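At this stage, I wrote out one protein, both as residues and as discrete backbone shape codes, and that material follows here.
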Amino acid sequence: MLKLQKTQVKIFSIVIALVFIGSVVAIALTQSGAGIASAAGNSNVGVVDYRRVMMAHPDFNKANGEMQKAVQEAQMRFEANNANKSDEEKSKAYQDIQRELAQKEQTLISAIQDKVNAAVKQAADARGMTVVLDKSSVVYGGEDITADVEKLLK
């Protein structure tokens, strides 16, 4: 085992203490608003209830109805085409239908998302906001612009 002399132990202890003090000072500086941390504090941050805005969009009910119709059609097609097939074939057919339905849902929803994103940007720009976050991911703070976005979409 390695034997250290008293002076080596003292030097080693001083180095560890300096590293510790340096890291405490660095944390204190970032928390006090110096450097990058202060940039976020000065920006105007908005929040929007994205789920509520999506569901309130005029095209959402139409897209939801089309999706339900597609699911019913896919279910009838699955039952008709796979009545006498093996479990493995049924599983593959089911996965194909799931992919088809997911693609259809993405197609229907993406048009609405584009409109909602444009309205969020417009509302944020009108208030001079630099950042808008989904309300579900914000614990505290931010100015709620959900009502403004809903007005723009109607």
The first helix runs from residue 6 to 31. Residues 1-37 form one domain. The two ends are 77 Å apart (CA to CA).
